[in-house]
Specification:
This protein has 604 residues and is an alpha+beta fold. It contains 19 helices and twelve strands. It has a five-stranded antiparallel sheet with strand order 1-2-3-5-4, with helices on one face. The model is unreliable at 1-20 and 195-210 (pLDDT under 50).
Length: 604
């Protein structure tokens, strides 16, 4: 176990039972044996034991590391221990625990250092992976990246002093409760100026996750390939370990996983996957993927040339992240303003259209600042997908304009339909004309209706009043057709009324007008026939219907053919008109569905 793994990480106030805010002014005895008083053991590792002691001279608590006995030769162990104390003591940096004292006490070599508290990155990663609320609340990604940036700068400082750490891992980085960041455990640090022999290749059987004196120099899983193979190492070997730590902070799992040393070593020699690939639910930005992948390249020449360069890359990302965070905050403010304005739109004392327009503008600003803002997208979704029961005046006008355009198109289709009816008049001549005034009247009504609907459609003046004129002309024409053959009138009336209903849709009551006039067109002539004003086109008697031609003579052979043609046209024209209208409705339905579907894909 690393020396600091079990160091007390609980945040204690200076007024606790273990510590005092300020030591009282008392007489101090400078007898050597009275300076340090053991409080308790904090932890133990491969090279020593760490104890919590009281420093009677200064009046503070310190961490005392004592050289361990019984592992390797005493001289070698003592040499490594003293080198650790001197290396750590000479690296005077805010993120390296300062060494206070070095000496021998009761036959034990020791050095004292600042007593620190907080959480190691190893503990933080475990807490985040397990979803502990206190860890998730205290250590967000930006805070961890900022700490990682400071670690890189600390290692860059050590490299500048000619020191390679060689054992960087999450357990050797501690975050304090007040923003402190410490790089721990310099026990296997390498001095670049010395001719120290590198370690032999890692062999199976070493303990996973621990640094052991005289064996593996480093921790498998965080060691670069050249360090694993016992080859020459430099600052880029530490860069690899920094990349492995950053990977673990982002993916919440080790870069080189494995349940045994063999698996970890094998994984370390394979090309690395990006954090976003290993943890797709982590929402890792591509910029951080690129930083990690460059840091953990198997080829040292492809890695960051220095820890400072990696620090600068993380800082560049954080600069953008800070800007994005500010944009998210501004977007959130705009969403609040938008919801307030939209809420006022339902207040009768306010101007609904102005408030709604203000709310939409605020939502637009929010999305412009942060296109992924869930609040803005949700509000837009609610507005877009809400039932159109309370549209603003401008939207209502736009909708009515669309309806006028559709009615204009329908008027043009109606004009062509009337012309098709006009083309059937020669069939009356084929059947034999009995009353030219009636034929002329029917022709005049057809031409008038066709000309009127064409004018309405061409000039885009398809207002409701203009459409009413067209409905009236159509009713007069259908009623007049009863003079030819009354049995045809209901079918013609119903099909023409249906065509008008498809063109009239903004007011429910208006849809009943065409059918009302169609009904009148059928029954008014019947009433006129009953009172004797109009001749009756057919009578009943002796179980038969007798047709009395008024307009046509009904020459037998030609009449049969002509009536067949009339029947066919009567079936085709309504089908064409209604199918065209249904095509438009289907197209509108598809557009609406596509819009709603795309919004559902876009919004959370």
């Amino acid at each position: 176990m690393p020396e600091h793994d079990t160091i007390d990480t609980s945040a204690k106030t200076m007024a606790s039972g273990d510590q005092q805010a300020v030591a009282p002014l008392i007489d101090v005895s400078f007898e050597e044996g009275e300076r340090y008083a053991l409080r308790r053991v904090l932890g133990a590792g491969g090279m020593g034991e760490v104890r919590l002691c009281s420093d009677a001279w200064i009046g503070r608590d310190v961490a005392m590391k004592v050289a361990r006995k019984g592992t390797g030769s005493a001289a070698e162990m003592r040499g490594r221990f003293l080198r650790e104390a001197r290396v750590q003591g000479q690296l005077e940096h805010p993120n390296i625990v300062p060494v206070y004292d070095l000496g021998v006490r009761e036959g034990e070599t020791f050095f004292t250092m600042k007593r620190i508290g907080g959480h190691t990155l190893e503990e933080i990663v475990i807490g985040l992976r397990e979803g502990r609320e206190e860890m998730c609340a205290q250590y967000n990604r930006r805070k961890l990246l900022s700490a990682m940036s400071r670690v890189c700068l600390t290692i860059a400082y050590a490299h500048a002093r000619g020191v390679l750490h060689r054992d960087l891992k999450p357990a050797n980085v501690m975050l304090g409760d007040f923003g402190e960041v410490y790089v721990l455990d310099w026990g296997v640090a390498k001095l670049a100026a010395t001719e120290e022999r590198t370690s032999a290749p890692v062999s199976v059987g070493e303990r996973n996750g621990q640094t052991q004196a005289g064996a593996v120099i480093g921790t498998p899983g965080y060691m670069a390939v050249e360090q694993l193979l016992g080859e020459s190492i430099d600052a880029r070997s530490d860069v690899y370990a920094l990349g492995a730590i950053l990977f673990e902070l982002l993916a919440l799992e080790p870069l080189n996983p494995g349940s045994s040393l063999e698996e970890i070593v094998a994984a370390s020699q394979k090309p690395a996957n990006a954090p976003s690939v290993r943890a797709p639910s982590g929402d890792v930005p591509p910029e951080l993927d690129a930083i990690v992948l460059r840091a953990v390249e198997r080829d040292p020449s492809k890695r960051f040339e220095s820890a400072r360069a990696m620090h600068e890359s993380i800082e560049a990302f954080l600069d953008g992240e800070r800007d994005a965070e500010r944009r998210r905050a501004l977007a959130s403010e705009h969403v609040k303003k938008a919801r307030a304005a939209l809420a006022l739109a339902s207040d009768p004392k306010e101007d609904p259209e102005a408030r709604r327009a203000e709310g939409m503008r605020e939502l637009g600003r929010a999305v412009a600042l942060d296109p992924s803002d869930a609040g803005a997208l949700r509000a837009i979704s609610e507005l877009v997908l809400a039932p159109a029961t309370d549209l603003p005046k401008s939207a209502t006008e736009e909708l009515r304009e669309g309806e006028r355009v559709d009615r204009a198109k329908a008027s043009k289709r109606a004009s062509r339909m009337y012309m098709a009816w006009l083309s059937l008049l020669p069939l009356l001549w084929v059947m034999g004309i009995r009353s030219w005034p009636a034929v002329i009247t029917i022709g005049a009504l057809i031409i008038t209706a066709s000309a009127w609907t064409h004018w309405v459609g061409s000039t885009s003046r398809a207002s409701m009043s203009k459409l009413m004129v067209a409905i009236l002309l159509n009713a007069m024409l259908v009623g007049t057709c009863s003079l030819i053959f009354g049995l045809f009138v209901p079918g013609v009336a119903a099909s023409s009324a249906a065509a008008f209903v498809l063109a009239v849709r903004d007011k429910t009551w208006m849809r009943y007008v065409p059918f009302t006039f169609a009904t009148l067109a059928v029954f008014v002539p019947v009433v006129l026939e009953l009172v004797g004003i109009l001749p009756r086109p057919y009578t009943f008697g002796d179980g038969t219907i007798t047709i009395h031609p008024v307009v046509a003579s009904f020459v037998p052979e030609r009449t049969a053919v002509s009536l067949g043609i009339v029947t066919l046209v009567q079936m085709i024209l309504p089908a064409v008109v209604i199918n065209r209208a249904v095509d438009n409705l289907v197209d509108a339905e598809r557009r609406s569905f596509a819009q709603a579907w795309r919004l559902r894909q876009l919004l959370p």
